[in-house]
Amino acid sequence: MKRVLLLIGFVLANALQLSAQDLNFNEGWRFLNEKAEGAESPEYDDSEWREVTLPHDWAIEGPFDVKYNARAGGLPFHGTGWYRKEFTLPKGARDKVIRLEFEGAMYNAHVYINGKFVGNRPYGYIGFEYDISQYLNFGEGTNVVAVRLSPEDLSSRWYPGAGIYRSVWLKMDEKIHVDHWGTYITTPTVGPKKAVVQNETVIINRFSEDKTIVVKQEYFAPSGNKVAEGEEELLVKAGTEQTSALFVTIENPAIWGLENPHLYTQETSLWSEGKEMDRYSTKFGIREIAFDKDGFYLNSEKLRFQGVCLHHDNGPLGAAVNRRAIQRKLQIMKDMGVNAVRTSHNPPSRELLELCDEMGILVQDEAFDVWKLAKVPNGYNKFFEEWSEIDLADMIRRDRNHPSVVMWSIGNEILEQGKKEIGWKLAKQLHEVCVQMDPSRPTTAGFNYYSAPYDNNMAQQVDIAGMNYKPSMYSEVRKNYPYLPTYGSETSSVTSSRGVYHLPIEKYSTHESLQVTSYDIIGPPWAYPPDIEFYFQEQNPHSMGEFMWTGFDYLGEPTPYGGKDNSTNGYWNADWPARSSYFGAVDLSGFPKDRFYLYQSQWTSKPMIHVLPHWNWEGMEGQEIPVYCYTNCDEVELFVNGKSMGRKVKGKDKTNIIVDFLRYEPKSFDSPYRLSWMVPYEAGNIKVIGYKNGEKINEKSIFTAGKPYQLALEVDREKILADGVDLAYITVKVLDKEGNVCPLADNKVSFIVEGVGRLEAVGNGDPTSTASFQADNRKAFNGLCLAILKASKEKGEISLTAQSKGLKKASISIISE
Ligand code: GAL
User: pLDDT at position 508, please?
Assistant: First the structure.
């Protein structure tokens, strides 16, 4: 990424400096969500079009409607979208190289400059850029960039979003410059005393004469101190490119790891005839990854993936990229004990990778959900033949300097698994692209068939075979393929709705309410409780760990409601308004479900304890209620209104869960990973006390809540940046007079925002709500809802008041600076 010298609110004509730089090009666009004949022409009148700032997702604006496919979120993501932006360039820019970079446009972008077609890029998840120098006017003349997007219906198995949903950059360079994603840094030697940092930099000479170019590389430690440098002189022939290759040694390196994710910077400068022609900076980490049949190693330490699969949407904000939204998502995942993310099933945003670098989270970077055989009628398979190798190579070129990225995935549940003739050949071909682009990382894929991909020699084409939903096969694969490294690339897929408990617990995965119980045992036919995966991971120490499906709920794929793969629109909409997933350990608004704590109990060691369900069962007095406790303590005692219901030892005393779990024996589900009691209901409170080595460590109580009485607000950060994009997430709780969350409350809450920010979106985590995410009010869902505030560029205070009929209102203020 080039240094951004000028970020905000620029007027190109007079503010642009003529040194090499990237200009953020997100502001000042106009947008129309329909076909527009001739809109690529500079003369076209777009004055009636809406003004928008990128990143933008038009589909999240809604409305939700049964006429749109629930599988893709029930939102209007298909059709035509046009974006136009007018800009001027100074006269002096005439002899520069000017490129326009799109980090991602959903879907099938056609880009025009001043009416001329510049290029087409179908895959919405990949970034691309064009050299637009030849199409531009300088000085007095204006320029128009026009982008037509044409996402199709039935083109995705989840909500893809729609629009220019990632950032756009205008880059102005001298005729000698570093190529797009032109640096490649690896650390072939990593040790406490020294590290070798190797880099390859692609240099372009667009002059019509040969040029001698001096390439300088300077290295800066996380502290900012310069720690190494290198220099190379190259003769680059007219109109060609050359790769400079250098290595330097860094003494006593600060090594990138999960606890201390130290980042270095490589500052590249290109010099010709004594003049600096370009400057390009690249962040990287010094770390070593390795794997063998017995596991995965980071800096020589064996590490198991405590991973989550994540789709790319940011809940109520849709697919539009927002750094803070992603940071919050990752922080919540880290709090659950997550150390790895699988970017299911597509290249992620740059921001996600930068944040994983900074936060110490490993990434499995995944390219595709489909190859040639279609999963949906209008999917990427249409473009696979022409684009897959280019898209895959570009993903790797873009992402290979991120220390967080530890594997390239060439595909998820690719249907060619079942095709003996072509599966392994395509896998080999894509694997080879990865090796060519980056031999420093292993390749993988998520296989969900057994035993076809192994029999068909397809799983053997990747370095590490990912197994989706096959924990009971881990040992068999180990026996039959003793040298094949494996892990659970997709696991569990249990479904639940936050705060929903059906009694008796439903026997089948669906329920007339279109919600799913939160006892964490229900799922579609291929799913199984997290406990089963924990068990098989323990039985198979060679397995590198798991990536559970999914960390967060996402828009679309409302399984167990809706339908099946390869079905038609109508089938998926049969259970309308179920419109977003139930798979998350965290709901669409970022509120943890109970399952969050089940994973936390397995993946973290800081003492924690969690108890469920809520304790508001009026009318069920005397009836037996299953009470579960998730903890990393060894023993727990449960009290109901002060009376002990017994002390139980985790992993020893049988749990008592009475649900038939149909697919796994024994029928009465028993788990060493949770504790449970059946207790007759009486209003009051339940309390769990956790013990470790016999010593009381922690406790948690839940009280029977009274009637909704008041609102309470909690903000995630009291200070945000006045940069026009930063966000504050405010949790709204409906409380009784004593301050207990009312677990069934669905009061409608209205919001008033004052000061230097605005209400960006609202949500509540209800997967069946068709209310707009952009309204100024939201009903609580099981006691909670969410307001997301966005900063403006003005510094000052932003205040939010939440009110609801009959309840005491609440206000909160934050500083934007
Ligand atoms: C998997 C698939 C995921 C998601 C999941 C739901 O088979 O790879 O994308 O559909 O099932 O359980």
Answer: 73
| Residues 299/257, Cβ–Cβ less than 8 Å | yes
Question: Measured at the alpha carbon of residue 403, what is the angle toward residues 402 and 404, in degrees to the nearest 5?
Answer: 90
Neighbours of 745 (CB within 10 A): 26
The Cα–Cα gap between 100 and 143 comes to 13
The side-by-side arrangement of strands in the sheet containing 29-32 is 50-52, 29-32, 81-88, 142-149, 109-113, 116-121
pLDDT at 573: 87
* Residue ranges covered by each domain of the chain: 2-173, 176-284, 289-603, 609-703, 710-816
Residue matched to tokens 């006390």: 689
**H helix count then E strand count, the chain:** 10, 44
* Ligand 1 atom closest to the CA of 412, numbered from 1: 8
- As a whole number of Å, the CA-based R_g of the chain is 27
Read off the tokens for 552: 């967060």
Task: Please give the distance, rounded to the nearest whole angstrom, from the Cα atom of residue 537 to the centre of ligand 1.
Answer: 20
Chain centroid to CA 190: how far?
Answer: 29
In this structure, the chain runs to a length of: 817
Cβ of residue 448 lying under 6 Å from some atom of ligand 1: yes
Using one digit for the tens of pLDDT, what is the confidence trace for 161-196?
999 999 999 999 999 999 999 999 999 999 999 999
DSSP letter assigned to residue 27: S
- Find the Cα–Cα–Cα–Cα dihedral 56, 57, 62, 66, rounded to 10°: 170
Ligand 1 centroid–CA 236 distance in Å is 49
Distance 519 CA to ligand 1 centre (A): 21
- The catalytic residues are 413, 490
What CATH number does the domain located at 289-603 have? 3.20.20.80
Q: Tell me the best of 156, 376, 490 to mutate to test the pocket of ligand 1, counting ligand atoms within 8 Å of each CB and taking the most.
A: 490
Answer yes or no: is the C-beta of 114 below 6 A from any ligand 1 atom: no
Cβ–ligand 1 contact at 413 (below 6 Å): yes
pLDDT for 15: 34
| CB of 368 closer than 6 angstroms to any ligand 1 atom | no
Name the pTM for this structure. 0.96
Instruction: For ligand 1, pick from 470, 493, 516, 522 the residue to mutate: most ligand atoms within 8 Å of CB.
Output: 493
Query: Quick check: CB of 726 below 6 Å from ligand 1?
Result: no
Cα(484)–Cα(59) distance, rounded to whole angstroms?
A: 43
Q: CATH fold of 2-173, please?
A: Jelly Rolls (2.60.120)
Distance CA 369, CA 410 (A): 9
Could you tell me if the CB of 412 is within 6 A of ligand 1?
yes
β-partners of residue 212 are 235
- Residue identifier of the C-alpha nearest atom 12 of ligand 1: 493
Q: pLDDT under 70 in the chain at which residues?
A: 1-21, 564-570, 654-670
Rounded CA gap, 44 and 605, in Å?
62
Helices (H), 467-529: 474-480
The residue contributing the CA closest to ligand 1 atom 6 is 493
The secondary structure element, H or E, covering residue 189 is strand 176-190
- Three-class DSSP category at 672: coil
Which residue(s) pair with 399 in the sheet?
none
Please check whether the two domains, 176-284 and 609-703, share a CATH topology.
yes
For residue range 11-34, list pLDDT tens digits in order.
333 333 334 468 999 999 999 999
**CATH 2.40.160.20 holds for 176-284:** no
Using the atom order of ligand 1, give the atom closest to the CA of residue 581.
6
609-703: in CATH 2.60.40.10 = yes
- As a whole number of angstroms, the distance between CA 729 and CA 716 comes to 6
557, 561, 572: residue to mutate for ligand 1 pocket, most atoms within 8 A of CB: 557
* Cβ–Cβ under 8 Å, residues 60 and 773: yes
Phi and psi at 737, nearest 5°, equal -65, -30
CATH number of 710-816: 2.60.40.10
Contact 459, 468 (CB under 8 A): no
- Collapsing DSSP states into helix, strand and coil, what is residue 660? strand
